């Protein structure tokens, strides 16, 4: 029987963490690897069953480069038994192998956190001692990562609460820890050796660069001299030299002068004469060096040949020399400065690459292209003479980086540039991998995202569908990447108003994720969130609330109560409660979201601005105009500081402030805000973007309130034209434009036009949203008001009652929109002489408004006024006065 020993608390803490790292962590990583392998290969190569066939499948899936670099690990791994794999092998398999591609960012992040903890923190702990505070920190770190990865944490909790260790267990733990220490020491020695090697290379590079600067050999490369005598052309040569001098005075860098003319006009010989004289003149200046080269720029092939003339005189085999010489004309450059983001492509090199990627490199051009490409490809081994393969990783990284910039900075030009490189990447990968490779699907998916950002919905749909088709064929119908494709298509369909298609796509994505990832995975929470947004748009408030709550529960469990994704769920629930008129619940959700974001992200993060914006909108609805203005201004200040003056989110803030000023009657301020918003959107999104339509709509509403009916009509029509073109004739936003035009025509007394607009709006909403949506109630309400003005009291009453029925059913008995319906019915009953019904309706409206808006809201004042007028008409002077 094993004997028990007495340990100090600090010793026991250390032993417990050792056990977690050497046993529990390893077992968890084995589970994650099998999960990721099966997600990718279960329906093709086969499920991972810890058999030699699995190991060989893994080995065959690794590139030559990875096989060489990780030969020691793969010797064991290709046996296929995960029980023989240590943490180093598992981290390699999950994070760095070729087989586990497109790893979910959340999984990658949490596995990498465990890797860093094991290799950087645990391996350097003071052996044998760990304080209670440090123990709780590290055990929580591992537990949190396990939660996020969907791994069981029961064993960790048991170890956390363990009060003793058996000696045999402890001996085993010590042995494993010693092995880990030896492994880390070995790795550190290798890193030191690599550092020395890098330092030596850097010293060599600096020496070469210094040599180039201090010991340069000028050159002058001219077109071939003709066999016959040529005229000196002094006047023309002088003009060329003057232009060159002007260029040099303006910029001391590289000067390029283009000579053009008809065939046979002597362009090449003029270039020869001018270049020779320029070179000779500089050569006479002591300590000066001149580098002159003439290029035939007739086409990319001729340009390539011109470069080859120089290349044949040089040794392009020395990698350090290539890197140094090419460092000033790198193929792809990104620079972020205070004035903006600059993305530059060296035009000459781009033309060379375009020429070379048409086919296999020609003998003459190969060295030149190889030198250009190698300047940014980190001198990877050349496994093929197909030059296009060398630029794939660089284009992929560049495209993703530019896309990220476009999202952070709201720069559509950057999105267009990312689209340019993304299309190049697609062409190259199509050629190298074939049209049905999963990497091609990933390219289509990324291009779809970019087209969607630019509002190119047809192109986005085509890209998403192609990605889906490839993934279905290559990965099977239940792969998580297939779920991602369905999700992207769902989001696009939702934006286009195709609600049935969107729901179908979101549900398919959810089904796959539930089956493959389990009911508590964060990606499942994302699917519930997307469905919640869709149900909210459709007015299915119960379904929306259920989805949002499920998403919140998963995130709370997997990520913890203070994660930023939890804050986003609170924001979603807050918006839903706000729509339902549950102002207290909405305020609580928004405040919780704001508290988490302030703590996790700091007071100036753009997500904090979003929460301020949501709170501002709630305060505005409650009539708390000072609080609303304060929130909107805080949101604007953060966005201006973090995003710049021309970001589309800044436009949204100006738009919100414009709405508030409009409600307060501050028409000049409102107009200024709306115009700023419109200017930003026009510049950033283009004149036909749906966001521009929203700004025209807001300006139209303001002009209508000011009595500027012509301007209002022009703005409403522009908004309608954009929406019809970009969204189609049956989109709900098109219905809203018809509704606005209907209100304007009604105010102008154009009853036929108003009725036509209101009916069109109602038809679209009925078709897209169903007969019981709250937006349908709004259309019935507008038609009711029009029929009342025309004296069609029966039709008016019918419309008002339909609106009330929908609102009672969808919003509940105490929503402010229900109060508006009672108020409209009261006014109709009063006009018909039905004073009892009118009084009952007015009182119901007042009760709701008092409860939901407070005693000092302007709508409460209107209700008192309506009751007062009614009492006055009835001769109840005391009640009227009160």
TrEMBL record:
InterPro entries: P-loop_NTPase, Sel1-like, TPR-like_helical_dom_sf, TPR_rpt. TPR repeats lie at residues 441-474, 483-516, 525-558, 567-600, 609-642, 651-684, 693-726, 735-768, 777-810, 819-852. The keyword Ribonucleoprotein does not apply. PROSITE patterns: TPR (PS50005), TPR_REGION (PS50293). SMART domains: SEL1, TPR. Residues 163-211 form a coiled coil. Keywords: Coiled coil, Repeat, TPR repeat. PANTHER family: NEPHROCYSTIN-3, TETRATRICOPEPTIDE REPEAT PROTEIN (AFU_ORTHOLOGUE AFUA_6G03870). This is Nephrocystin-3. It comes from Pocillopora meandrina.
């Amino acid at each position: 029987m094993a004997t028990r020993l007495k340990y100090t608390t600090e010793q026991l803490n250390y032993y417990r963490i050792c056990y977690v790292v050497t046993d529990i962590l390893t077992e968890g990583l084995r589970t994650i690897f099998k999960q990721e392998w099966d997600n990718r290969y279960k329906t093709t190569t086969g499920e991972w069953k810890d058999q030699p066939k699995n190991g060989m499948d893994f080995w065959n899936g690794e590139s030559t480069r990875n096989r060489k670099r990780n030969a020691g690990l793969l010797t064991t791994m290709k046996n296929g038994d995960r029980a023989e794999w240590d943490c180093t092998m598992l981290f390699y398999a999950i994070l760095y192998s070729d087989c586990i591609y497109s790893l979910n960012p959340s999984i990658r992040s949490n596995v990498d956190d465990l890797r860093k903890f094991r290799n950087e923190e645990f391996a350097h702990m003071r052996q044998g001692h760990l304080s209670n505070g440090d123990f709780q920190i590290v055990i929580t770190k591992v537990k949190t990562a396990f939660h996020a990865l969907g791994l069981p944490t029961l064993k960790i909790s048991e170890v956390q609460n363990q009060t003793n260790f058996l000696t045999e267990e402890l001996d085993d733990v010590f042995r494993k820890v010693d092995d880990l220490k030896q492994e880390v020491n070995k790795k550190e020695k290798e890193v030191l050796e690599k550092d020395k090697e890098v330092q030596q290379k850097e010293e060599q590079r600096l020496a070469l660069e210094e040599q180039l600067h201090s010991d340069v050999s000028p050159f002058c490369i001219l077109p071939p001299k003709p066999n016959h005598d040529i005229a000196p052309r002094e006047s023309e040569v002088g003009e060329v030299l003057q232009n060159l001098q002007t260029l040099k005075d303006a910029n001391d860098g590289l000067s390029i002068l283009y000579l053009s003319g008809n065939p046979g006009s002597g362009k090449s010989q003029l270039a020869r004469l001018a270049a020779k004289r320029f070179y000779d003149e500089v050569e006479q200046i002591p300590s000066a060096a001149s580098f002159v080269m003439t290029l035939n720029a007739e086409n990319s092939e001729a340009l390539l040949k011109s470069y080859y003339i120089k290349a044949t005189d040089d040794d392009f085999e020395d990698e350090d020399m290539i890197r140094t010489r090419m460092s000033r004309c790198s193929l792809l450059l990104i620079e972020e400065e205070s004035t903006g983001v600059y993305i530059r492509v060296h035009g000459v090199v781009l033309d060379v690459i375009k020429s070379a990627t048409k086919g296999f490199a020609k003998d003459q051009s190969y060295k030149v292209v190889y030198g250009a490409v190698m300047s940014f490809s980190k001198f990877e081994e050349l496994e093929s003479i197909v030059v296009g393969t060398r630029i794939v990783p660089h284009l992929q990284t560049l495209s993703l980086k530019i896309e990220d910039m476009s999202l952070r900075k709201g720069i559509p030009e950057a999105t267009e540039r990312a689209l340019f490189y993304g299309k190049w990447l697609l062409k190259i990968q199509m050629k190298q991998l074939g049209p049905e490779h999963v990497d091609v699907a990933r390219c289509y998916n990324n291009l779809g995202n970019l087209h969607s950002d630019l509002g190119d919905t047809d192109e986005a749909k085509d890209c998403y569908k192609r990605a889906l088709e490839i993934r279905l064929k290559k990965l099977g119908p239940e792969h998580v990447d297939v779920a991602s494709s369905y999700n992207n298509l769902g989001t696009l369909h939702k934006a286009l108003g195709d609600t049935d298609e969107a729901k179908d796509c979101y549900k398919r994505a959810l089904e796959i994720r539930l089956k493959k990832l389990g009911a508590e995975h964060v990606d499942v929470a994302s699917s519930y969130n997307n469905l919640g947004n869709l149900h909210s748009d459709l007015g299915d408030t119960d379904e929306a609330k259920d989805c949002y709550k499920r998403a919140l529960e998963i995130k709370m469990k997997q990520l913890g109560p203070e994660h930023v994704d939890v804050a986003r769920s609170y924001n979603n629930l807050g918006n839903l409660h706000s729509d339902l008129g549950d102002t207290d619940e909405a305020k609580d959700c928004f405040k919780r979201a704001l508290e988490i974001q302030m703590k996790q992200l700091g007071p100036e993060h753009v997500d904090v601005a979003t929460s301020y914006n949501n709170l501002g909108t709630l305060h505005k609805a409650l009539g708390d105009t000072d609080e609303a203005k304060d929130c909107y201004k805080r949101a604007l200040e953060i966005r201006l500081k973090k995003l710049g003056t021309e970001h589309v989110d800044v436009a949204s803030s100006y738009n919100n402030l414009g709405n508030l000023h409009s409600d307060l009657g501050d028409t000049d301020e409102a107009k200024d805000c709306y115009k700023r918003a419109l200017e930003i959107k026009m510049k950033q999104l283009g004149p036909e973007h749906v966001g521009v339509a929203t700004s025209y709509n807001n300006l139209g509403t303001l002009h209508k309130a000011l009595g500027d009916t012509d301007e209002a009509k022009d703005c409403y029509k522009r908004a309608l034209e954009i929406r019809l073109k970009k969204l189609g004739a049956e989109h709900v936003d098109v219905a809203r434009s018809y509704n606005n035009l209907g209100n304007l025509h009604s105010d102008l007394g154009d009853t036929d036009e108003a009725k036509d607009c209101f009916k069109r709006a109602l038809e679209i909403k009925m078709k897209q949203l169903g007969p019981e949506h709250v937006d349908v109630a709004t259309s019935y309400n507008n038609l009711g008001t029009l029929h009342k003005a025309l004296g069609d009291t029966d039709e008016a009453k019918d419309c008002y009652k339909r609106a009330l029925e929908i609102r009672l059913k969808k919003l509940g008995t105490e929503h402010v929109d229900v109060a508006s319906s009672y108020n409209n019915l009261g006014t109709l009953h009063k006009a018909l002489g039905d004073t009892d019904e009118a009084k009952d309706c007015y009182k119901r409206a007042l009760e709701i408004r008092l409860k939901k808006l407070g005693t000092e809201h302007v709508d409460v004042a209107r209700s008192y006024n309506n009751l007062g007028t009614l009492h006055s008409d009835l001769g109840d002077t005391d009640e009227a006065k009160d």
